[in-house]
């Protein structure tokens, strides 16, 4: 799929494809990026016995496979070769951030899985091609989102005695609930941080009926991060494994539903605990398939 020149692709090391000449007068361009659409499903259906069609198992996205092609233009032969080596190093075997800047900027973590080929058109110009793969095929918004919640509580309020009294004046109430929007079109993975003091804290996605609980006690200042991935991971104070203390309901690791069809990307989140005065922090990014 060809990309117009005005659509920039940002890579590590300050390389911007289609961003115009850099300070050395070197220009990196991207002509095509095949595979930026929605990847295919895993399949796995079987022919129905004695009936038309096949079974319809749950589908998952395959890894995102991309083929990128482009040009390098430089004012000197030396700068052209230096730019080639720089691009080869960035489009490497380790995961790196690849961001496509559009009206909705999106990024993936990709790595090179095939050869990176190039052809020296002239001393000042090279055509290149690279085979890339994103193990996690989902595309993420570049601006992270978060929701900080406190436990439900009532504050203030007094009772005044008198001949026709007592009369109670109510204070304000903190509900412990909030809204988390995923403007993407697929479920957004989330990270949950419980910060103590808390006893058996729980975060519930009321919209989907799913929840996660930390079945333990957090002292004041202690925190546990729960990464709602497969497999799920929980780390106390960023280092100690506490995955065994995590309990989920409603289908294992969960996230925030996206805007698909009549389904909105609005998620009602509730924070509860057996006791305590700590907080829950939910973090995510808009997620697209």
TrEMBL record:
Residues 37-47 have a biased composition (Gly residues). Residues 34-58 are annotated as: Disordered. This is Minor tail protein. It comes from Kribbella deserti. The lineage of its organism: Bacteria, Bacillati, Actinomycetota, Actinomycetes, Propionibacteriales.
